[in-house]
Amino acid sequence: MSLLRRRNWALPKQPSSIAPDHVWSNADQDPVPPEKWTWTGWTFTQYWLSDLVTISTWSAASSAFASGLSATDTILLTLVAALCNAIPTVLNGAVGADLHIPFPIAIRASYGTYFGYFCVASRAILAMFWFGVQSSYGGRCVTPVRAHLELIK
User: Fold this and answer.
1) Which of 114, 105, 103 is nearest to 30 (CA)?
2) Which DSSP symbol is given to 77?
3) What is the three-class DSSP state of 150?
4) Residue 32 backbone dihedrals phi, psi, to 5 degrees
5) Where are the transmembrane segments (predicted)?
6) What is the rounded CA–CA span in Å between residue 63 and residue 137?
């Protein structure tokens, strides 16, 4: 029954590199030091473009084809949609990119320490939802690929 006591779950306070000892902080909440800044403009571009190479994007493009758009129109539509997606994404990441702090810390400025947990949890739930959507689309793609591979044999 010792696990049910709250004090048995308490962890020792970790030191922070910038905060005084009496402040609720640790090294994970500190800004990233300059020697650990490894991302470049090219890295950010590749990371952003990786969002375009998903099953959801491919299905959106195939739906545009099915509705009668040409290949050029479909590519332009996909790129315009990606740019529309990039604007709020860049604005959301601007604080972290400028101050080099993680999202859970940046969100505390707007929502406070405890309501910030809600924002982090809702972001995690949204990530799980989209992982499920991508997995569902991926599972639907496996069946025709398997059927095609059996025809090749």
Assistant:
1) 105
2) H
3) helix
4) -70, 130
5) 75-94, 114-133
6) 14
